[in-house]
What does this fold into?
Amino acid sequence: MVKTLQMQIKKPKIFGWLVNLYTKEDTGEINHELPFAALLFTLLAASGVTIYESWKKLCSIDLLPTSKKEAREIVRQVEVLGYDPLTVMYKRAEKTKSKNYREFLLGYVSTVRSGGNVVNYLKSKLRSIFEVQSAAAIRSIERLSTLVEAYAVMLIVTLCSYILFIVFATTSVFEPMKMSGTPGMDPTIICFLIFFVTPLISIVFMIIAHAERKSNLIGVKQPYYAAILPLIIVSSAIAAIAYLPPLQFLKSAQTFPLVVTICLLAISIPPTIVYMKIAKANYEAETSMPNFLRDVTEARKIGLSPEKSIIHATKRTGYGKFSETLNLIRSQMEWGVSLRKIFVNIKHKIQTWPVLVNFLILVETIKIGGGSAAALEILTDYSEKQKDIEANKKSLLRPYVILAFVWSVLIALTTTMVAMTVYALTQISLPGSAAMPLEAMQNQINLFSTGIILQCWLSGFFVGKVNEGTFAAGFKYSAMLVITAYVSLVLSQNFLGGMYGVIPS
It folds into this structure.
């Protein structure tokens, strides 16, 4: 009876925690989509479309899934339950956990009931929403900087652990501790910490970064597909090196770090090539879209029709890879293809979310509201503001890429320096120390060099997620960090080896 009562008490708490987690995620998504949903409402209102028709239009927009779900609920209550749209919006405002969304709904209801100008309210609210979004982007960067600093601290702790392991493994200073029953540094424990615990910590940081940093790219799977075949080949090669006697020489202390470097590069380079092509096309689309909208707006102001304004804007040069998409748009419009069909075709070439949303809003504004110059001016202004926000975010996050290379060089140099210094000291007759064989020192450097290269490879995915918002970008940074780490290890071993009279063979 008591156990049953305890279960009944705990169940609501667990259920409540799950509800809160879902609500938090849903709130974040609706805040992310709200500027674009508000922009669509503003443009349609400026073109004479009612708010209820705007909600019905939002029901068919897949690029705003959370707003689409909300719109379907509002339309359902109006058409099935018979409520008027303002009452439904007021009720939804009371239920939502998003403060920004609640204020948007309540402000609209209040403006309509008081007889105010709806378009002016939406313009004012839209300006406020983008200002809040800009401030939220700055706060997000601050949180990411804290996360990167925490990751740097973790790497410093890892470096200190490496140094401690080297001292334990290469000297007999701690023999009295072993004699007293204190466990020593078993090589199995060292391998477990280097190749399991440290990568696991990096993966935890990646999960946190994934929750904090969202990418503008949607549906980017090609780089991951490109990594499958190299991964299979590398796995087969590693298995062959481990079990085939003729390939055992590749496991030597001088060769194995190079083998690991080549294997990781083989995995990273094909996806890097695929991703860089996608990123280049989409980045140029992001930077060029506001200019394209500005050209459409100015052409509309001089009296051209919306369709002719778009054709006129597509003839401008200087858009880079985005010109290919604009040429496709122009050719299809000249052949009489509808704007909605053109948008479907564009989705196969462009994968950046802001560009797709802006073009979708442009299409809906033209098809429903006629694409007035005033409505297009609103779209252009806020597209330019969105571009400024993204550019500011990228410029503030760019220094963390440099920090990643500093990590790689520092860990490689420090670990090698400590290993060789300890080796040199053990060659001197000191109390409590025994001379360390050269082969043992090389094996230690081999073990830690392999761990450092693997750690730098994983760090690349963390940096890619923080800097560009997607793990697909991590292949590029991983390849560069692996090369940096290996070159640092080779240079430090040769330089310090010559200094201590130990030249790696």
